[in-house]
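Reviewer 2 asked us to include a model.

Predict the structure of this chain.
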Amino acid sequence: MTLYRNILSSAWKNTWHHKYLWFFGLFAALIGNGGELEVFFRSFNDRMEGGFLPWLKGMSATGIFSLNALKNIGRLMVEDTGTMLLLIFTLLLVFLLGGFLIWLVIASQIAIVNNTANNKLGKKHDIQTGISAATKRFWSVLGLNFIIKFFAYILFGVLTLPIAMSLVKGGVLGYGFLFVILYIIFIPLILFFSFIIKYAIAYSVIKEENFLEAIKNGWNLFMKNCLISIEMTFILFFINFLAAFALILIFLVLSVPFLFIIIFSNALAYINLLFIFIGAIILFIIFTAFVGSILATFQISAWTYLFIELETKGGVSKIKRLFSKK
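Predicted model (structure tokens):
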């Protein structure tokens, strides 16, 4: 456990002593704080609820891509040009804001990886250093993040085929068994592939390797340290679980005063009670974002320290050490 203890300790010190990283962590948290297990659960949930690219399916359901919609747009452009131009401007603004948010999320991930590595190696690290690294490696890391998301959707698209077939043909038992088999096969695939991408991102940011070279070296590093990667994932997932549980307990305790206010709300004006309720929600969102930014910084730092450790010294998994003692 010494390997993980040292890495987690270093990651926490890096997170706590360099609080400017929390700004990056706030946006990097949008990628997900649950690590590889969250990639699996979130992808499965998205697939079950909305199918492949549920947001695209939702947009298609509105009829925006239909021939009638295009005809209406053309008619509005002629009959009400001002309104149509305003609509186009609004859509462009939304796309620009969306693009900026994507840049901010990926740039934050890169900045934490880069600055954590610089801290480990005794190099300069600050907000400007992080943004500079993000500017250089943005497209490569964006591509790597896209690959893991796309790969997850493809796998779970195949995984849910037995469900669709069972609904059409009625052979629930046979297809249900096939679903379980595919489920068991695809869990390791998506988890292993996410490890490769995680190491590839480290190679891209820290070693400044090109896209394909980073994936190749990420594959090699994972194959040499697959057990360590799996153990690290479960440790971080457990830490995230404890943090989420603690957060729920804190809010349960803090909600007691609000409950007393609601009980005695007859003595308060309705508008005051509404402001108190809105204030409580805002505090909840702020505190959750604060904790999420710290967790994201800590988790990315931990993986970065692990990457450097495996690259420079190598490591032996806890399971292998236990079996070697027997």
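Confidence is low (pLDDT under 50) at residues 46-56. The chain has one domain: 2-324. We have added this to the supplementary material.
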